[in-house]
Structures are given as C-alpha cells and as structure tokens.
Amino acid sequence: GVWGSGRQGAYGAANHFLDALAEHRRSQGLPATSIAWGPWAEAGMSADAESLAYFKRFGLHPIGPELSVKALHQAVSAGETTLTVANFDWARFTPTFTAQRPSPFLDGIPENRREPEQPGSGVETSAFRAELAKTPASQRHGFLVQRVRTYAAATLGRTVEEIPAAKPFQELGFDSLTAVQLRNQLNTATGLALPATVIFDHPTPEALAGHLRGQLGLAGEEAGEGSVLAALDKWDAAYGTGGLDEAARRRIAGRLRVLLSKWDPAEGEADRSATAHDALESASAEDIFDLISSEFGKS
C-alpha cells in the first residue's frame, strides 16, 4: 500500500490499518513496528515466479530471507514505528511511478535527484533523422505512424500488424511501465524530450505520430504539399469510380488543364489553345453567354 495497491487492494488496506495501529500504540508508549515489505525471494506470498517477474518489470527486486530478517532486527532494535524495506531499481521504478503525474513522495530519494537524461543525440537519432529527411514530405506522416507502431510492437512483444494505427494504446495493453519504455525509445530515436505521459496525451499511434510531426517541425510542411497531394489522390479516385458521362469528363479534364497551366506556365502555353477549344466544346449555352457577358459587357 506504500506506492499503490495494484493487484492487492484488500491486502494494502489491511496493511494501512496495521500502520495506523502501530502509530497509535507508539503514541500510548507501547511497542509496535509495522514494516512494508518488498517482495521476498524464496519465501513469502510473492515468491512465485509470476509475481517476481511482475514486480521486476516495475523495478522491484526480491530480497533474500536472511537480509530481510536482519532488517527486521535492526528496525525493532532502533524502535522504528513504520518503515519500508524493499530492493528498488530507482532508474526503472521512478519513471514508471511518475508516468502520469509527478510524485513528491519520491523527491527525497537521493537516486531520484540526478539530472534528467538528455534527449537522444547518438547514432540511432542520426539514422532516424536521415531516413526522415529522405522521405518525401507527403509520406512523412505515414513514416512516423509506422515507426510508432514498430516501437509499440517491440515494447509489447508483438508484431506491427497487431498494432492498428487508430487503436488506443491502453486498449493495446500499455500500462505506466510500457508507456515509459515506448517514450524512451521515441526519445532516443527522434532526439526529442517527450514527457512520460505522451501516450496518454496522444492516445493512438496515429495521434502520437501527428504530435511527433509537430515537435519535429514538419506540420506546416506537410500541410502544404501533403494536403494538395492528398486532394489530388481523392480526385483521381473519384474520377475512376465511374458514373460520369463523357461531357462531364471533358469538363473536368478542361478544368484540370487550366489548373496545370497555372502551376506550370511552360506546359500551359503549349496547351492553352487546346484548353480553350475543349472548354468551348463542352460549354453549355448558358456558359457561352456568361463568357460573352464577362468579356464584352451586357448589350
């Protein structure tokens, strides 16, 4: 119950009662010592392989019975009332425990006062940046989505195909520990300093890739070329679905040639007469009268 009651809610509540009882007895001048134990090796209710593996994931390693008994003797001899005895890997435990919110509870631990790690700047970061730079702007969002899915799959021990881009990380099985692990991989690869809460703030691979795009300074770039190319893809798909008669197709083709002439003047000069001819051929009587009116004014 010291740092939470995951998997042992009732047990944690009972231990808190014993802590309060020890404090009450001490206030009455009576002896009492209540110890919050980390997992024991070889003995105890968490000595099975599954429980030990679970605790190790969060940075809690088992302590041997002999060392535990020695700690108990020292606590009682020193007149301690309540204390915690556990074998912590602070580098793993603290980022996990504070993944969703900071914790003043851990600020007094000397190992937690180290300078925070700097964002990645090594070989992996350089390789990631180089590959991203070679990717066409219109494909960079997809590149980032795929990278997020790849790192997420590696974190969970799954295949990329099992990580849909639109599925929330928590539904995929991410918890505070794996959230930190994924964040660390992304920081190393990108050189960014993402917070431990990044997958909770951007809860799907698609959303997280969009956040990375912005943090890497690519959002404006892709909003230009990427959005235009995406629109062209939609036009192309609509044109090929059928349902358009010949006259409609000719009108659309004429419009596209006009647009092309704006983007590529040299191409436009070569096609200008053909464009005008096709436009007149496909124009309705109303279109012709509108053209005459705009050019010569109303009679």
Helix-strand category = mainly alpha
CATH class of the largest domain: Mainly Alpha
Distance between the termini: 91 Å
Global outline: elongated
Helix content: 55-70%
Q: Helix tally?
A: 14
The CATH superfamily name of the largest domain is ACP-like
SSE pattern:
HEHEHEEHHHHHHHHHHH
As for the CATH topology of the largest domain, it is Non-ribosomal Peptide Synthetase Peptidyl Carrier Protein, Chain A
Biggest sheet, open or closed, and with what strands and sense?
Answer: 2 strands, parallel
Strand segment tally: 4
Give the neighbour order of strands across the main sheet.
1-3
Would you kindly provide a brief summary of this structure?
This protein has helices at 9-27, 49-57, 65-77, 90-97, 123-134, 140-156, 169-172, 176-190, 198-201, 205-215, 219-240, 246-263, 265-282, 285-296, and strands spanning 34-37, 60-61, 82-85, 87-88. By secondary structure, the chain is mainly α. It has 3 domains: 9-88, no CATH class; 123-220, Non-ribosomal Peptide Synthetase Peptidyl Carrier Protein, Chain A, CATH 1.10.1200.10; 243-299, no CATH class.
Structure description:
The strands form 2 sheets. The chain has a two-stranded parallel sheet with strand order 1-3. Helix 4 crosses helix 8, helix 5 packs across helix 8 (176-190) and helix 6 (140-156) crosses helix 10. The longest helix has 22 residues, at 219-240. Helix content is 61%, strand content 4%. It contains 14 helices and 4 strands. With 299 residues, it is mainly alpha-helical. The protein folds into 3 domains: 9-88, no CATH class; 123-220, Orthogonal Bundle (Non-ribosomal Peptide Synthetase Peptidyl Carrier Protein, Chain A); 243-299, no CATH class. The relative contact order is 0.06.
